[in-house]
């Protein structure tokens, strides 16, 4: 056995022991494993190979509360293995219940005083890495009470980029859950993110990119989108986009510009957002910037996203259009004086005559999202009643064209349907029972298809 396997077996044995001095042994073994992982590529491959129980042993050790002192070393091992292996083993950690363990450790570490910043960075980096592999991480974070830890850390030290960046990555993962997005928005995460994304600065562009992605995910919630509109953030987003468009002459920060457009696209999903976009002269801004981007092929994503936003926000009118908005004029033969068409003809050219009722029932959005989340929480015991599982009911019913009594007249022509497969007497035209030859010895072999 290799040295790594021996150390892991020692660590597994220490987990089962409760004798005095086990803590010192666990710390010693953990430091040796971390040293091997950091110094030898062979050890990393061995720990992540198929069939290896290394991750299971580490997670089991992290669950033992008496070994919290060695948690940092084991988390560093997991972090180093996942970062060096490209996250290929992230799904293994999720399958072994690693998400729940890491969230519990995060909650325990947040109560320490003073706060261990290095441990917080490692925990958030791991959660951000395995988060996309676990569809229930948002629900687990809310149930464990770890949902607001990352938000509080960002609030406390907004200028600490080393800590804020992984925290925002975790918040981005949490925000994919609709209930979490509404809850985080009520606690001021939208206002906090706008402090990070503006004004224009080429410093810490990676942090701004993650902040924009998180904001775009949060604004998909109509509650957060209305909050952003009420605070005038649509105008702020357009100003930020124009600022980056003017300064990014070499098109090196296309992803940041696209992130701003994604935020605008999310906030214009509601009627108030579209109205605020029109009032902020957004149509002209996106049209002019898109014209400048047409000559550069790599900026096609910006043009496409801008086109989607403009098409969504452009005022809608019913036909016929007697204004300059339409290239065609449809002349109706008869137009009643007091009818709806005559009223539409008398409207000013810039009036949107199509009533948008898409957001009239948004006040109950939070309750419906919470109910949907509660349904998702029970998905393990969920049974879809709409899916029929009875095979007998799934078989098509064959309806007879005639009654059984009428069909019995044809029974004599098809005796094989009503009689057993027996030898027929050709003289009496009646079946006779099959009697095997007494001279035959051994089993009777029935020839299969294709045999002579």
TrEMBL record:
<dbReference type="InterPro" id="IPR011989">
    <property type="entry name" value="ARM-like"/>
</dbReference>
<keyword id="KW-0121">Carboxypeptidase</keyword>
<keyword id="KW-0378">Hydrolase</keyword>
<feature type="region of interest" description="Disordered">
    <location>
        <begin position="347"/>
        <end position="386"/>
    </location>
</feature>
<protein>
    <submittedName>
        <fullName>CBPC1 carboxypeptidase</fullName>
    </submittedName>
</protein>
<dbReference type="GO" id="GO:0004180">
    <property type="term" value="F:carboxypeptidase activity"/>
</dbReference>
<feature type="compositionally biased region" description="Acidic residues">
    <location>
        <begin position="350"/>
        <end position="377"/>
    </location>
</feature>
<dbReference type="InterPro" id="IPR016024">
    <property type="entry name" value="ARM-type_fold"/>
</dbReference>
<dbReference type="Pfam" id="PF25571">
    <property type="entry name" value="TPR_CCP1_N"/>
</dbReference>
<feature type="region of interest" description="Disordered">
    <location>
        <begin position="432"/>
        <end position="452"/>
    </location>
</feature>
<keyword id="KW-0645">Protease</keyword>
């Amino acid at each position: 056995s290799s040295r790594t396997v021996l150390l892991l077996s020692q660590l597994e044995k220490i987990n089962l022991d409760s004798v005095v001095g086990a803590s010192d042994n666990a710390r010693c073994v953990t430091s040796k494993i971390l040293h091997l992982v950091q110094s030898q590529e062979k050890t990393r491959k061995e720990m992540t190979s198929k069939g290896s129980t290394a991750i299971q042993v580490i997670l089991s050790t992290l669950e033992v509360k008496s070994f919290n002192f060695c948690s940092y070393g084991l988390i560093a091992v997991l972090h180093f293995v996942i970062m060096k292996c490209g996250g290929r083993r992230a799904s293994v950690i999720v399958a072994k219940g690693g998400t729940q363990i890491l969230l519990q450790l995060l909650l325990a570490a947040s109560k320490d005083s003073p706060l261990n910043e290095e441990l917080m960075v490692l925990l958030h980096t791991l959660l951000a890495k395995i988060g996309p592999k676990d569809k229930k991480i948002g629900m687990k974070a809310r149930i464990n009470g770890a949902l607001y830890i990352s938000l509080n850390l960002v609030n406390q030290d907004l200028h600490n980029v080393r800590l804020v960046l992984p925290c925002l990555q975790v918040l981005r993962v949490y925000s994919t859950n609709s209930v979490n997005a509404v809850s985080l928005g009520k606690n001021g995460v939208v206002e906090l993110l706008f402090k990070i994304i503006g004004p224009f600065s080429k410093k810490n562009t990676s942090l701004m990119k993650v902040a924009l992605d998180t904001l775009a995910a949060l604004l998909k919630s109509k509650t957060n989108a209305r909050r952003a509109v009420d605070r005038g953030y649509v105008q702020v987003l357009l100003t930020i986009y124009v600022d980056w468009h003017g300064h990014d002459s070499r098109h090196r920060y296309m992803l940041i510009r696209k992130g701003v457009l994604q935020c605008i696209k999310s906030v214009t999903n509601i009627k108030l957002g579209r109205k605020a976009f029109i009032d902020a002269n957004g149509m002209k801004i996106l049209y002019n910037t898109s014209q400048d981007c047409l000559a550069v092929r790599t900026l096609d994503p910006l043009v496409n996203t801008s086109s989607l936003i403009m098409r969504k926000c452009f005022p809608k009118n019913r036909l016929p259009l007697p204004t300059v908005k339409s290239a065609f004029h449809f002349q109706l033969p008869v137009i009643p004086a007091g009818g709806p068409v005559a009223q539409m003809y008398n409207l000013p050219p810039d009036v949107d005559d199509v009533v948008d009722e898409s957001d009239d029932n948004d006040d109950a959005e939070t309750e419906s999202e919470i109910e949907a989340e509660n349904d998702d929480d029970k998905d393990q015991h969920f049974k879809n009643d709409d899916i029929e599982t009875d095979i007998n009911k799934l078989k098509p019913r064959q309806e007879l064209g005639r009654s059984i009594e009428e069909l019995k007249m044809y029974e004599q022509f098809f005796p094989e349907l009503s009689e057993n497969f027996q030898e027929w007497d050709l003289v009496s035209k009646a079946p006779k029972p099959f009697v095997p030859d007494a001279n035959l010895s051994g089993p009777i072999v029935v020839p299969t298809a294709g045999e002579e």
